[in-house]
Design goal:
It contains three helices and four strands, in the order ααββββα. By secondary structure, the chain is of the alpha+beta class. The longest helix has 16 residues, at about 95-109.
Length: about 110
């Protein structure tokens, strides 16, 4: 294949993959913080850390199981009887559902 053939092939197969951002991933810690701030309630503590955004909620009987914080986009999760601590490294559908579920739980208390 000539050099032009390869260039032509690459041009033909170039695709705008911007829609993938809807699935989360690739955000800086500051971008993550901004996205998460829009979703959390005042009971939730968040702050930028090296790996992403630290998320802490101290409330008993949270509607969570360990696998909720062991998915892609979560790091160093700890679920105890007193609450949850986890680092959020991406902000995709799993993280949105996680936070929405906790906000709903808090509002129903």
């Amino acid at each position: 294949m000539s050099g032009r053939g390869l260039d032509h092939l690459i041009e033909q197969n170039e695709t705008d993959l911007g829609f993938l951002s809807a699935y989360g991933g690739g955000e800086t810690s500051e971008e993550l913080l901004s996205l998460i701030q829009q979703a959390v309630s005042e009971e939730m503590q968040i702050e930028v850390v090296d790996e992403g955004v630290s998320f802490v909620l101290h409330l008993p009987n949270l509607p969570l199981v360990a696998s909720d914080i062991e998915r892609r986009g979560f790091l160093n999760g700890k679920l105890t009887a007193e609450g949850v601590e986890v680092t959020i490294t991406d902000y995709g559908p799993e993280q949105r559902r996680f936070i929405e579920r906790l906000v709903e739980f808090i509002q129903s208390e």
